[in-house]
Amino acid sequence: QKEVEQNSxxxxxxxxxxxxxxxxxxxxxxxxxxxxxxYSGKSPELIMFIYSNGDKEDxxxxxxxxxxxxxxxLLIRDSQPSDSxxxxxxxxxxxxxxxxxxxxxxxxxxxxx
Amino acid sequence: DADVTQxxxxxxxxxxxxxxxxxxxxxxxxxxxxxxxxxxxGLRLIYxxxxxxxxxxxxxxxxxxxxxxxxxxxxxxxxxxxxxxTALYFCATRGRDVEQFFGPGTRLTVL
Lengths: 113, 111
What we know:
- The structure holds two protein chains of two kinds.
- By secondary structure, chain A is an all-beta fold.
- In chain A, 0% of the residues lie in helices and 55% in strands.
- In chain A, strands 2, 4, 5, 9, 10 and 11 form a six-stranded mixed β-sheet that branches.
- In chain A, 35% of the residues are buried.
- Chain B has strands at residues 4-7, 10-13, 19-25, 31-38, 42-51, 54-57, 65-70, 73-78, 87-94, 100-102, 106-110.
- In chain B, a hairpin with a 2-residue loop joins strand 5 (42-51) and strand 6 (54-57).
- The N and C termini of chain B lie far apart (33 Å).
- In chain B, 32% of the residues are buried.
- Chain A binds chain B through residues 6, 8, 32, 34, 42-46, 49, 88, 90, 92, 98, 100-106, and chain B through 33, 35, 40-45, 48, 50, 56, 58-59, 90, 98-100, 102-105.
């Protein structure tokens, strides 16, 4: 079992709709969770991160954690064509103080004008 | 100027050659990382370093070695390149905050 799993997509949504992206993780001790966006041929850039103590909303983006089921979701409201990219979920895995990010394989999002 | 730079940006080499990819950062971060990205496989951690004397193997370190020459420099070497090391390589850094900052990437092709 991979440590961080994502559906590769593509996830296609119409402009203005809500896009819902999910990932599951295997390490119950994980404390922090990240969503990166990567445009084709570019480097990943951080969109949001959350700790295990709660969800977070930032503009059109909301990150939610379900610890019992070990999955993290990213909601994008009012999706725009410029949101079309691959979204990478990442989790801090490893011994406390010596953790490194483990990434999922990414979900490709397509927002149709 | 970019905070995290990688050289070269593109490299084509032949099987068996020794290759070094370099990463430099001006962010003053202690932690540095090397990832490779293959289509459909996301980013996989090769090596990471918490400071100059603390270097750790990641998920896929076989066939690679690293050198942390200074706080600002972290190099990745392929001692004898093979075709399945063809990939996009990213360097990343992290300071006291949780965010990792990525360099622009090096596209490596091994023929």
